[in-house]
Each structure stands twice: as C-alpha cells, then as structure tokens.
Amino acid sequence: MENHITQISREHLEDLKEAFNKIDIDNSGFVSDFELQELFRQASFYLPGYKVREIVATFMAGDTNKDEKISFEEFVSIYQELKSKELSETFRKSITRRNGIRSFGGTSGNSSEGTQHSYSDEEKVAFVNWINKGLANDPDCQHLLPMNPNDDSLFSSVRDGILLCKMINQSQPDTIDERVINKKKLTTFKMTENLVLALNSASAIGCTVVSIDAHDLMAGKPHLVLGLLWQVIKVGLFADMEVSRNEVLVNLLSDGEHLDRLLSLSPEEMLLRWVNHHLQNAGTKTISNFSEDIKDSRAYFYLLEQIALQEENRKTSIKIDMRGLKERDLDRRAELMLQQAARLECRQFVSPHDVTSGNSKLNLAFVANLFNMHPSLQRAQGDGTEVAHIEGESREEKTFRNWINSLGVSPYVNHMYSDLCDGLVILQLLEKVNVRVNWRKVNSHPYPVLGANMKKLENCNYAVELGRDVAHFSLVGIGGENLSEGSSLHTLAFVWQLMRRYTVLVLSDLGVGEKVGDQIILNWVNSTLSQKKKDTQISSFKDHVISTSLPVIDLIDIIAPGTVKWDMVKKGGRGGLTESDKLSNAKYAISLARKIGTRVYTLPDDLVEVNPKMVLTLFACLMGHGFKKARR
Q1: Taking a C-beta distance cutoff of 8 angstroms, is the pair 233, 365 a contact?
Q2: What is the pTM of this model?
Q3: Count of helix runs (H) and strand runs (E) in the chain
Q4: Ramachandran class of 102: left when φ > 0, alpha when ψ lies in -120 to 50, beta otherwise
C-alpha cells in the first residue's frame, strides 16, 4: 500500500455520504457486503464484479466484528485506498489528429485493450455553435455557455446533465419535466441522476443509447457525446418532415404520383426531393445526395435563390447574390454561398470545408435547418380533400416506433407500417426478446425487383411463426400477409406483444417467473403500496385513480426514498384534481421514473387517459427497478 493516501474534500465527502444513504435505505448506518458494488456505482466509481469480491474478501478478513456489515467510515477508508491506486490503473489517453479526425484509445473498466475511437472536429464545432445559439437565453445553462468551438469544452459541458436535458426538450418539447432536473448544489450523485434522466428520455424519443451510460457521459467520452447529441439534434431537425404535420409537402408530389409514395419517404429522401423541387424551378441540374453533388456549392446557390424569390410576408425582400458561382476556388465559393445563407439566418452546421469535402451528415443538417426556417412551398392547391385525409401518427404508433428505434434496429424506422412490412425489423425485435432467429432462412436486402413482394412475405411468415410457436404470442387472425401489406391493426398487435415481452423480460431475469402475468404485476403494485402504508391502491390497469398519477408517484417514493418533492405534487381537495393538475402530476411522474433509472416509454397523456397498455409497461418497469434495488 502506498504511503500517499488520497485526501477527500468536504464536498466529495458529502457526495459519498449521499451515495451511502441511497443504499442504506433503513438508515441503520451500515450496508451489507453484497451491496458494495452498487455503492461504488452510486459514488461514480465503477469496478468490475471480481474486483469488488476481492475487496470484500480482504475487508472481511480484517473485520474484527465479523458482522459482514460496512459502516460509512469503513467505506470511506476503502474508497480512499482505491483512489490512491487509481493513477496506476487510470484510463490512458492518447490523442492524434489527422484531417480533422481525432483518435483516442486506452484501457478502462469499460473498454478493451487497444480500443480505438475517433471523432470529427467539424461535427464538434457544428454542434457547439448550434447549442450556443439554441440555449443562449436559457438561464440554467449560463454556467456552460457560450462554449468555445475550438476546444473540448463540449465534452465537459455534458457532465452535469443539464445541457443534455435542455437539448432533448429543445428537440422534443416537454419530454422532460423541468421540475425534475437537479439544478442547484450539484453533487456527483445529483449530476448522475440528471444524466440517467437524459439517457432514459433520449431513449423515449427514439435515440439509441444501449451502449452509453452516465459514467461515459460524465467522463466526457467524445465519440459517445457526439453520437448522442447528433441523435437528439436530428430528432428535432426532422420533427416536421412529414406531410401530416406540414401539408405544404404535398407540393413535392410528382405528376401522376400517388400520395402513398410521398408518405413512405424517409426525412432524408423528403429533403432531397425538396431541394430538387426548387432546383427544377430554377431550371438547373438536380442532385442525388448531400455529399458529392453539393461540393461545388452550385445547388446551394440556386436553392437559396429560389427560397428568397418565394418567401412571403417579408418586410424586406432579400435578393441572393449569385456572383459567387463565378468564383473558381471552391472553398472561397462555399464561403460566399454561406454568406448568402447567413442573410436568411441559416448559416448553421457547415463551414466552407464541410461543403467542399462533402460531409454528408453536416450538409444534411444544414439543409434540414434551411427547410425548417424557409420551406418556401405554396399551400396545397385544389379542394384539399386529399390532404384532409392524411392522418398523423397516433400517440401509440409514435411510442412503439420510438421504442423500436431505441433498441438500435437497422434500418431506422421512420414509418410504422411501411418500414416493417419486409419483416426484417420485426425479426430483429424477436431477437431482442430472446427468440432465436435463423438468419439463413431470412431474405435480406437488396431484393430482386421481380419477386420482391414474395421475399418480404416469406420473412413476415417466418416472423409470425416464431411469434406464435416460440414466443407464444396471441396471433389469432394474424398472418404474414397482414404484416407485409402494412395492416395497421395487425402490425400494432404484434409489436405490442413484442414490447410487453421486452418490458417484463427483466422480471423473469430477476427470478419473478418465466411468465409474468398482469395479475402478478398488479399484486406487486398494491402490496408494495400497502406495506409502506400508502393510501393509493389500484383495482386494475384501467382504474380511474391512475389518472391522478398518485399511485405511480407513491411507488417511486417507496423505491427511491427522497426523490419525490411533495410540494410539486397536486393532491386535490374535495373537488378532486382538475385535468390540468392531472397532466402536471403525470409529467412529473414520468420524468421521476426516468430519473431513478427506469427506461419508460409511457407518455403523460397515457396516464391521464389511463391507457391500460402503457400503464402496464410503466408499472412493470417500476417493478423491475424495485426488484433490482432489493437484490443489491
């Protein structure tokens, strides 16, 4: 043992005490040896299981009391000794730079020897500038902004979780209840809570976060920070890229083309069509991508010109200066083009070099922002009958789609039915719920033009077979043809059973039983509430009392004592709760559930309206989290 023991500051000691108290639920002043790994995790000191077992064995050998209990003072002593050794085991970081790409590698508890990651300086600069602009007036971010795009402040800025929560709400308003974000006296534990809240909320809006944890973000791992931010930013940029929310997109229909084709386009395809619509109006060459075809800035000059020509309700008209097209130096030409974009307040995401090098990701973001600011499309002509029949995505469809995407399936699901009709995504979901798929029996992309529908039908038939015979789903009346034809009723029924199985799978892993029925979850809810002398009880997942969210908030208070701020909760008087009060409670409850570590896809409206499916998944997630804590 080294003579130099790491000293712990008073603030750090408070962090450790807060972590200790979270594990010491009964306030006995001790934790058990088997709870030590979780205690280290709460203190943001991540150790593999074998290391913790070694520590426990060493400690117990010298434990004169032989009570297999660890006091706070003993924990601090162990922690100090480990931190003193950390320098010799710390993450070794080496950074090199080549053509705007930074690489770094090293070893830690979560990375393998020699692992190499890279990230783009251009992306970092673009995201910093976007965040600086978007959150410039947010009083809760003034300690972070403006960030310097030329240093690595972006990676440290996510450490307290506030910025990430704010960015998620900027992309999808009201995803996170601001009352739940820790903003003052930010101990390590409170920052970790914010990061957990951000990650679970990002998952709920369709971001893939399965390979990221709060520790990674607190450490500011560049590739993970940039990857998460790009997903969050893209959700916001693409939010209005669908006909049901933006009827002017109907103008992008080609002559003789059916509306269904437009509705099936991905946001990237829709953006490309939008650009080409304006380029055709300009009488110039169209593009087929946002990389090679935009390097000379020609398409952008004509796009900006068309936008300026078609802008309405502008007090001062803007005429785009097209003389930049005569500039032979492409970097200089790109700069002149961006100066014109700045006149439309749309110089975001790209530098001249990003244009001339064909950075497809950043050019896609540049064009998406341009569309959001200046779609420059006329209102749909005619009687509007066709547009009137375009139904937007239902709340249930959106929830299921976000859940699917959060699991990292490929390709990304933009449309619930057309993107699932080849069976490939459904087969991936079956694997996610522990159903073995023989991929040699699956027809993968690209399909031959002739026989494509038959290949897709074969995949869907196989998916139904696995769902019925292996997963034991109730699929009466559902055949492969229903999925391949994009039947909303049958596809939703299949996906719901996949989501339900995924949700309760953790309960099986915890030993609750291989088949967890609704009644088991319901019994757990009521017994947990009654054991802790809570007033709320529910008779079913349709019980009207759920609309108040009080049973959910009571359960969270039991699972994670001290999390609920009761002055934020509407209790209602003799007249009961108003609809506004119920929605306020629901928003608070959902964000609290995510903050304590449950990956919840239920939405506030699901609680207020008592949607039994989504209510079930919420209680199942809380049950799983409660069992995990009980086992620690």
Answers
A1: yes
A2: 0.82
A3: 27, 5
A4: beta
